[in-house]
Write a structure and sequence with these properties.
The protein is α+β, with helices and mostly antiparallel strands. It is built from one helix and ten strands; from the N terminus they run H-E-E-E-E-E-E-E-E-E-E. It has one domain. The radius of gyration is 32 Å and the shape is rod-shaped.
Amino acid sequence: MAKAKTSPSSTSGFTIIETMISVSLFIIIVMAGMGALLNANLLHQKSQDMHSILDNLSFIMDDMSRNLREGYGYHCINDGVTSGGTLKDTRSCLNGTGVSFNSLLDNSQWVYYMGIKPDGKYGIFKSVGGVPPYQLTPDEIDINSAPGFSVLGAEAFSQGNLQQPFVTIRLEGKITYKGVDTPFSLQTSVSQRAIDNL
């Protein structure tokens, strides 16, 4: 009688080497994916921070525009004076460093001007009713020292001026955030809302 042939077992497993190679490849793929995910998260965070700074700058421009529109008696600052009686005189100029005006709400004097921040960079400052000025722009923003305000038609009708007061604000500079400089340029124009009958 013939002896039956034995077949090898049909249940075979992975060897240690195959398992180690599979796990190593899986770890490499996961680490590459995690690196890309962390990098995308970092870029998103930087984008959100920059967006917040730009929103702040846009809000400052909107605040200046709204308050200037509701003011009267514009005085373009181009002599470095940011407070005192000389700001009560109406004056036009093309290249000023600030503007003062009287509020229609309470007749107090408002001043917006470009000044030097504690870090030595230029920023926008605001003073209301003679109160010491405070900084509006965040520390990350550095505005060029070039004049950014122009006022046309500020003089009174009684002085022969027939033009409605008109203010243009131009801000150029850069945002420095985490070692990266991003240039910006903003401009807005505002006309006095009330009829100029001074």
